[in-house]
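Q: Could you fold this chain for me?
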Amino acid sequence: MPAPYWIDPNSEDVSFPDINLAAHEPDGLLAIGGDLSAKRLINAYQHGIFPWYSGDQPILWWSPDPRFVLFPEHLKISRSLKKTIRKQRFEITINKDFYAVIEHCSSIPRPGQNGTWITNEMKQAYIQLNQAGIAYSVEAWENNQLAGGLYGIALGSVFFGESMFSHKTDASKVAFSQFVQHLQSIGFKLIDCQIYTEHLESLGAKQIPRHDFSRLLQSFCQPEKYTIPIESETIGHSND
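A: Sure. Below is the predicted structure, expressed as structure tokens.
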């Protein structure tokens, strides 16, 4: 039977079909159904799968090929971004206001998108993961006002980026670049950016084959073996 595969939302089995069985069109659609329990979400990310759907759809699970990733050591900070950083505009924090970040990510208008994929069900699931120490937010503050930020999942030494927003020019880029440098300093090996965007390509992200991504997860995404903690803290002003 071709993908997408049906997952019974009432089943205690949180496993997924092999990602190599994902559909080619639409690219990477693997399964439909299931739930957003912490166990299922963690298992999904460990295997290179993420949920992405709108409010009028069932839960859709994806594993696109190629995969868009950033190796922390390949972070690019452009001349113009360095100039913004030197202006000392933003204070960058981790987990200072996860709820506000996910709210802003869900409500900000995006070109080519009608509505949001960050449903109330998704918000609650990731807030619970944040409370469990698995999901993290990064905030960029200007004059004590939230100017931009991002959130995602940390498992093993892999950070899985979910969404970002910016109300001020370069706020999310400064937050992302400083966070990537922080992750590298504490031993993270890989950042999953999911699907291609020019925004993240400008910061050094690139596409790799899904089978390569899967092999990287086998090496770096084993939270039962080790997890590198991300402390809730201020990681500096943009002049650091």
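A (continued): The CA atoms of residues 84 and 133 lie 31 Å apart.
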